[in-house]
Amino acid sequence: MNCFRKWRRPGCLVLLICLLACSSQNRESGKEKRPPNIVFILTDDQGWGDLSGNGNRNLSTPNIDQMAANGATFDRFYVSPVCSPTRAEILTGRYSVRGGVYSTSAGGERLDLDETTIAEVFRNAGYRTAAYGKWHNGMQYPYHPNGRGFDEFYGFCSGHWGHYYSPMLEHNGAIIKGEGFVIDDFTNQAMTFMDAHRDRPFFIYLPFNTPHSPMQVPDQWWDKFKDKELVDLHRDPDKENILHTRAALAMCENIDWNVGRLINKLEELALLDNTIVIYLSDNGPNGSRWNDGMKGRKGSTDEGGVRSPLIMQWPGTIEAGKKIPQIASAIDFLPTLAEMAGIHYQTKKPVDGQSLKPIILGQGHDWPDRHVVNHWRGRTSIRTQQFRLGNEGRLFDMFADPGQLQDIATQKPEVVAALSKIKKDWEATVLTELPEEDLRTFPVGHPDFKFTQVPARDGIAHGNIKRSNRWPNCSFYTNWTSLEDKISWEVDVVEEGEFEVVLYYTCREADVGTTFEISCGAAKLRGQITEAHDPPLIGREEDRGDERQESYVKDFKPLKVGNIHLEKGSAELAIRATKIPGEQAMDFRLMMINRL
Question: Which of 398, 312, 407 is nearest to 355 (CA)?
Fold first, then answer.
């Protein structure tokens, strides 16, 4: 009682209020000390001009535009001319050629295993990590996302997919069937992950696969565009395919809707103020459409092929509506996000990028001029804040001539000389890290992962066998008409073991009874197709345009062939038909080799 009376004295009452306030502040401080979540949204083949916020009057992207209003927008941000190199640079903070990425398929998209990824950096710092969508930096473990720092992966590992409605996907290596339109599905998976891990920091990588072709999008978005008159056209209107543009813009509006769903979910979970949300694309537009008059499109090292939108939102920390004029690049993400999250990290190899935190948070008043290198298949372009040296040696003043219409090389010989030296040095020191010949085999049977997917994409066809399409990523093999035919892969069995083999096939009724042999070194396994499965090709009825390049696909059936014992080491993995009772053995999509 006496103690209570003491606390009731005026001075003690003030002290009590102060203690309670301090306790409350400490609790709030504890919340503030929690590292920020990261939601990293990467679109596929969306140009800088495919946003209403960047001036395109043909479409409306209110959710992405609102992100820009709530956060920072980079005015001149650069990526690689195509998909897999940009992804490699985001993951590592290093130029993609350093990591062995030189192609978009058949193994050339793989990121070397001695590279440190941004997911590893964040997972080592205590984050839960997940990736949902198109990976495109390696399929077989440990190239697989689950081997590169991601606790969770749902999507596909190839460079493109042939059908966007409930397609064959994978979940942590296991083949599964998607649920609905892929972008909606990937977004649903990300929101579920947010919900499940709301109480600890998470890093979510959302590499969407649209507006990459095939041009498929639900009616809800297409109906607005199918007959729409476009008011903003490509700088050379004769090159524009209006139907393709309409489909691409419809796909961009679907992306915008899903961005809105992600933001709303963060708000619902009371996580929005402590989450950095990033939005960008992996290269220039996949068609000749409005892009503010820039030269080049996907695949080009000119401005239009490598300039990407970049928006970064972190309410209360990043100034709303901030415009950042300084040039920056995909190689900057790892050091930037690690520093903004307060992560001290070490990578196996030095990064090429630099932290953009000072200019994002308004501290980079003395930010020095720098250069950015854009490279693809023998073409190298150098960008400084004011100039671009094109791959053919032409020089453009990007302040006065953003469309690269006038070569000023003869007027600025000193600039040409300086940038040419940078180019020469980069090609001599960085590009030379890419081996002339890719000697990497495909790993099979890693002891830390149950599943190894061996797709038609990575195989070599012998004899009469043909791909369903010239672009391998989602292709299958057909026209298997002779016992002399085979499909082979150069593999490395990482560790000896017993494995279950599952084959994904289609077969007409007349071809039932086909027998085949799978071999890997001295090991052999025989199988037989006893059930017809002859579904139609899928995709044509959903296509919104007439420019499909990818293979149509089928609903392939899994066949459990049996178990095989594999010895450790390099070998040729092959499948041959031993009896073809009809016209052809089967259509082959992939083989799963699952460690028992």
Answer: 312
